[in-house]
Design goal:
Rossmann fold, six-stranded mixed β-sheet, four-stranded antiparallel β-sheet, 33% helix
């Protein structure tokens, strides 16, 4: 994700900056790009006004276009329960670097100078009940001013999350903390370290992109004018512009007004060159095809969302639990818990004997 300056358009209040009235000022936009590390290519991008930039929402908006065989590698800027919940909800695997002293890792007491690897079971809630306050290892309270799309403000529901936290030694005196949903029986800590190190391909690609396409000295008055008059924009499929027919037509009209030709690979007539005196024929054919295909793309998206909602509702009625399958209780759970309930054993002693984490202990305790 990068900021890009452009020539000043002082009427664009969402992007215009000026230190004082004596300077010219400039417009600032935020570029969010999704990069395929293995194939070394950009596969999606979101451009935001700098005053409304939100890297979390940009990533979330791109998730539906990512194949389930992918692993999303993200840095600290994307650390949030909301982003993780969206990744899980879209069936995607992820490896995300997080802060060690705050944020997601804050209540896990992760050692700073030791490697560790454990699974965390937590419950997201909007409420501050006595149970929530008494079990800080299990519950994570999301205040009303914080965004969590799966629990509206004031909701009395809860949302379970399960992930793996790994503290990796990167060099002799350097450690990093990773959160992931890659299972330890398929991906060792060393595998996670290798995936994490591959993220440098993203940084390298941004440097190359800035120099190759001139983003170091980028000039434009509108974000649509990243493409200049006479340029050609090649799109694989029409719905890469949008799944909304009105938005598709509006964007194509903006490109046309800007003198930018749009070639769409799944509409062969957009790839054809007609003589100038027959250009109206090409435009008429393309308009018809775009109208039809735009409607199909919009209807397909509506159907996908409808089926997704129906599937989720049907699964909930069958008491299907989303996320990782539950683990079986430890073999000595009943005996140890009898001692805890009779106050013959302290919870900290029970956790040590059971060989599980504190958060998992309190989750089992509340569920059983």
């Amino acid at each position: 994700m990068r900021h890009k300056r452009s020539q000043n358009d002082r009427y664009d209040k969402n992007t215009f900056y000026r230190a004082n009235n004596d300077v010219k000022g400039y417009n600032l936009m935020h570029l969010n790009a999704l990069y395929d590390i293995m194939n070394r290519r950009y596969i999606d991008a979101v451009l935001q006004d700098s005053r409304n930039e939100n890297e979390h929402s940009a990533l979330i908006s791109m998730l539906e276009n990512i194949g389930h065989e992918s692993i999303i590698v993200a840095d600290r800027g994307y650390e949030s329960y909301n982003t993780i919940a969206h990744l899980e909800n879209n069936g995607l695997k992820y490896v995300m670097r997080i802060k060690t002293s705050g944020g997601i890792a804050q209540k896990f007491n992760i050692p700073h100078n030791e490697e560790t690897d454990f699974t965390a079971d937590i419950i997201i809630t909007r409420r501050q009940t006595n149970e929530v306050k008494a079990n800080p290892e299990l519950y994570r309270h999301i205040p009303a001013f914080s965004n969590f799309d799966f629990l509206p403000k004031g909701s009395k529901d809860t949302y379970p999350l399960k992930f793996r936290i790994i503290r990796l030694r990167i060099s002799e005196d350097n450690y990093e903390t990773i959160v992931t949903n890659l299972c330890d029986d398929e991906f060792s800590a060393e595998d996670i370290k290798m995936i994490y190190k591959m993220r440098w391909g993203i940084e390298t690609s941004f440097r190359e992109l800035k120099y190759q396409v001139g983003l170091i000295a980028f000039h434009s008055k509108k974000k649509r004018q990243i493409l200049r008059m006479g340029d050609t924009l090649v799109i694989k499929e029409l719905d890469r512009l949008s799944r909304n027919k009105a938005d598709i037509k509006r964007e194509l009209e903006e490109f046309k007004t800007a003198g930018v030709r749009v070639k769409i690979l799944d509409i062969p007539t957009t790839l054809t060159d007609f003589p100038p005196d027959q250009a109206w024929i090409l435009e008429m054919i393309n308009s018809i095809l775009i109208e039809v295909l735009g409607s199909i793309a919009e209807n397909e998206r509506i159907k996908i969302r409808s089926r997704q909602r129906e599937g989720i509702e049907a699964a909930k009625k069958k008491n299907v639990r989303f996320g990782w399958p539950p683990k079986s209780l430890p073999h000595n759970w009943q005996q140890i818990m009898a001692d805890v309930r009779s106050e013959n054993k302290k919870p900290v002693e029970a956790i040590r004997e059971l060989g599980i984490s504190r958060s998992y202990f309190y989750k089992l305790y509340s569920d059983n």
